[in-house]
Structures are given as structure tokens and as C-alpha cells.
Amino acid sequence: MFTLPDSWVWDFWFADDGEQHHLFFLYASRALHEPDARHYRASIGHAVSEDLVTWTRVEDALVRSDVGGWDDLATWTGSVVRHPDGTWFLFYTGSTLTPEGNVQRIGYATSSDLMTWHKAPENPVLAADGRWYETLADGQWHDEAFRDPWVFADPGGDGWHMLITARGRTGPADDRGVVGHAWSPDLRTWEQRPPVTEPGQGFGQLEVTQVEEVDGIPVLLFSCLASDMSAARKVGTTGGVWAAPAVSLLGPYDVAAAQQLTDSSLYSGRLVRDHAGQWVLLAFHHDAPDGSFVGSVSDPMPVRWADGRLVVDRARARTGKD
Q1: How far lies 271's CA from each of 15, 153, 189, 307, in Å?
Q2: For residue 216, what is the DSSP state?
Q3: Cβ atoms within 10 A of the Cβ of 90, count?
Q4: What are the distances in angstroms from CA 249 to CA 168, 221, 244, 253?
Q5: What is the dihedral of CA 311, 92, 37, 68, to 10 degrees?
Q6: What is this structure's pTM?
Q7: Locate the Glycosyl hydrolase family 32 N-terminal domain: which residues (predicted)?
Q8: What is the pLDDT of residues 92-102, one digit of tens each?
Q9: What is the pLDDT of residues 200-226, one digit of tens each?
Q10: Is the pLDDT of residue 243 over 80?
Q11: Which of 18, 71, 167, 300 suits a disulfide with 176, CB 3.0-4.6 Å?
Q12: What CATH number corresponds to the domain at position 14?
């Protein structure tokens, strides 16, 4: 488990350099006292591990910019990929407060070694396009949701794709969650495209999306709590990490058929392959038994397919104590 004694840790993502797993994570000081305040104080920390269990913290990756910057409130969730020329790209969410509310946009930083990162001067590279995506001006949500970029190479070699936590333009406010989409030929320039899912699937937002082929079967992973679900979908659940069937990495994704992998004790789950080649899930500890916020990253939990659905074996989580 990865935990910090003086800070909450929540959303995270990985990179693998062939020798070590790199964990990039959001964190904020517990001196804030109120866990919800962490969102407006988030920085991106960094730790490394050989086994996804024992972690060594290293120098932070990114912090927010000075006042007036596009990411001057906080730096939020992202993903890391490597360009064919060897350059590492860390895509992340930049948050800023406007008179109308919180606006989220997407930019990136680059590194030659995964340790020292430099923000791109052309940031931000993407913001919500009102032709397809809800904005603050629509007055339907508490912020302009356009965040959590998940970037992956096109399976056929046609550039790069980005999946985005976003909201559509139609439907009830609690049922507008969509998976946004953008495409790039080179990771530096991005073309925004319509969402790859439709509103009306039961979720107000699909956070921290990820697509992978687990044992040859494609799956879309995302997270959503009951407080951000439609009235019908939230009945009988606290929410948590969800898995939706996918025809391929590029979709279509059947969000309406999504099934829970975890309850709200775990959130923002990430699938990753360990160095033995086994797929595991890590998530951050969200709700304690008494309902309080925890804020630490779990140990890796094996996943498998059973009767056509992805299953997490929490009882067999690796702790490094065997």
C-alpha cells in the first residue's frame, strides 16, 4: 500500500520503464482538515516500485502554475505515454477558477527520464468544445467537466487517442456523463472530436477512464459514486469502480451495461500489468467503514474474467508480507 502520513493521496496513474513502475498521484496536506478541500490544493507526486507493493517516493512531478495560468488552481489526473522518439508525455488536467466556476482543461509535460518534467508552452491543448460538450454556460453542473485524459496509441498505428471525462449537451443533469474523445498524429497537436458514448447511460460523470485488453478481452474502466449517478442508477449502490463491455479499445463501449468492480471503499481504479505479466487492479481507499475519507493507494489485486464479467479478487491482494 502507498500512503503518506501527512497527506491524502487519491487519483493516480502509472508508467513502466521496463525496470520500475512509476506511480504518479494526486496529493494534498491533511492540514486542510476537510478532505473535500484537497481538490483545490492538489499537486502531482511521484513514487517508484519494482513490484507495485513497496514504493519509494521521489521528487514531485508537477505543481500548479502562478496566478493567471490555465492550471493555477490545481493539477489533476492524467496519464503517461512514451513517444517513439523516447520522450515521455504526461497528460494532465489543469483546473482554474473563473467568476462562473471551476473550469478544467487538458495539457501536457514532457520528460526524457520520467523524473524531471517540463510543461509544454502551448498548454492547454484541449478545452471543452460547446458543439459537443457541456460547458459552465449551460448551468447544469457544478463545474466544467473536461478532465482525466487517458492517452493510448491507435491499435492500427494511426496516431494517438485520448479519452476524457466530460458531459454531453442533452438530457437530465444527473445523466449527462460521456466519454469525450480527441485524436493526435504526434501527441503535441490535438483534434477534438465528438464523444464516443451517449448521455443517458445512468452516470453524471465517468471519472478516470481507462481502456485495456485484459487477457485478450477489451474493457472500459471508469469510476462514479452514487452522488453522481442518475436517480434510477444509484438505487441500492454507493458507487465505486465500474467496468463496461467494449467491442475494441476504440469502442463501442456499452456504458449502460457497466458492472461494479468495487464499492465506494475503493475508487479511481487502474488496471496495470505487473512484471510477471499478470493483470492487477489498484485503487485508492475512499470510504472507511464509518464513512470518513481515507486517502491512500491499495495493494495490487488480481483480476480475472468470470462468466463474461471482470472480477477483482480483493482477498488475494499482494501486500509484500508473504
Answers
A1: 12, 17, 27, 19
A2: T
A3: 29
A4: 21, 11, 12, 9
A5: -170
A6: 0.97
A7: 19-228
A8: 999 999 999 99
A9: 999 999 999 999 999 999 999 999 999
A10: yes
A11: 167
A12: 2.115.10.20
Given a cut of 60, whether residue 270 has pLDDT beyond it is yes
Sign of CA dihedral 46, 50, 56, 59: negative
Yes or no: say if 105 and 146 are a contact pair by the CB < 8 Å rule: yes
**Which pLDDT value is given to residue 172?**
97
The mean pLDDT of 16-39, rounded to a whole number, is: 98
Q: What one-character DSSP code corresponds to residue 253?
A: B
pLDDT at 318: 80
CA–CA dist 227, 311 (Å, integer)? 24
pLDDT, mean over the chain: 97
Establish if 55 belongs to a structural domain.
Answer: yes
Residue type, 184: S
**Secondary structure (3-state) at 152:** strand
Residue 300, all three cell numbers: 495490487
pLDDT-derived band at 321, boundaries 50, 70, 90: low
CA distance between the termini of the chain: 14
Tell whether 263 is covered by a domain. yes
Distance from C-alpha of 183 to C-alpha of 37, rounded to nearest angstrom: 33
Residue 322 forms part of a structural domain: no
Cβ neighbors of 52 (< 8 A, separation 6 or more) are 21, 272, 274, 280, 282, 299, 300, 318
In Å, what is the CA distance from 35 to each residue of 10, 29, 70? 11, 9, 24
Query: Which residue range is the domain that position 81 belongs to?
Result: 7-316
